[in-house]
Each structure stands twice: as structure tokens, then as C-alpha cells.
Amino acid sequence: MPKIMPCLWIDDRIEEMVDFYVKTFKDAEIHKVDRYPDGRVLTITFRLRDQEFMALNGGPQFKFTEAVSFTVDCDGQEEVDYLWDTLVADGGEESQCAWLKDKYGLSWQIVPRQLTEALAGSDRAGAGRAMQAMFQMKKIIVADIEKAYAGN
Question: What 3-state class would DSSP assign to 19?
Fold first, then answer.
């Protein structure tokens, strides 16, 4: 078990939620399922890419908020499109600047490496233009970020 593992409190949709995440992220797997004495799922430990998570079937008391989100580094527009479209499907919500909320209410940031590179680029004016372009977007469009950075 890792030294720090996010625990996602969910109400009775625990198996559905974990299955959705494991199917959405290509490099993912379920490690362990623990059950209450009555047979219902208590916790599921799972991995998405290189991050370990625990989901807890804890009841309706707590909901996810935007105060916590998970940033996903993507390698280009195709991966951004796939993750964005999959995570906002069936009741998710788009937000600004690469942020979204999935159908379970969990917040994600879907960030292409090209955005990160542009914002950290040596051309500080280009980085500023890329940032301004990002502020106008919900889902990040790599070609538009690259054009803004180049000054086109």
C-alpha cells in the first residue's frame, strides 16, 4: 500500500464508479474488494495509471466538491478528447481551463503536455498568449494553444 492514497467516499454506486474509472483509463486495475458483513462492498482499492486509490461505500453524508481534483497529464489532443468526452458523458459537466466534473461529481483536470510546455516555455510573451487562450477554453485544444504561443 502506498504511503498516501486518496480515498473517494461514494454512496452505494461504488462498484459502478470504480468500474467506470478502470474502463476509462487504459492502464488501470482493481486490486482488492472488501465487504461489509452483509455482503455489500465496503472498499475497493484500485490503480489508475500510476496512482493508487481507495473507494469507500460510506453513505450519503458527503459529496465530492471542486476543492479537490485529479490532474491527468495527456499526450496530445486524441487522449484529451477521449478522456474529456468519456468523463463528461452521461451527466458530467464541463468547466473552464481543462476542468470537468464527471457523472459521479468528481473533478478532473485533463491537461495536454503541450499546454504545460507552452505555459513553461522560454518565450514568456508566448506563454502569456497561451494562458490567455486557455482561459477562453473548456476542453483544451492543443492546436489553438500552439498557435497562441507562436503568436499566430
Answer: helix
State residue 1's pLDDT score: 64
Q: What is the mean pLDDT of the chain?
A: 97
pLDDT of residue 108: 98
Closest Cα to residue 26, out of 83, 67, 66, 69?
A: 83
3-state SS class at 129: helix
Cα distance between residue 34 and residue 56, in whole Å: 10
Under a CB-based contact definition with an 8 Å cutoff, are residues 35 and 29 in contact?
Answer: no
Query: Which pTM value belongs to this model?
Result: 0.94
User: Backbone dihedral region of 151: left (phi > 0), alpha (psi from -120 to 50 degrees) or beta?
Assistant: left
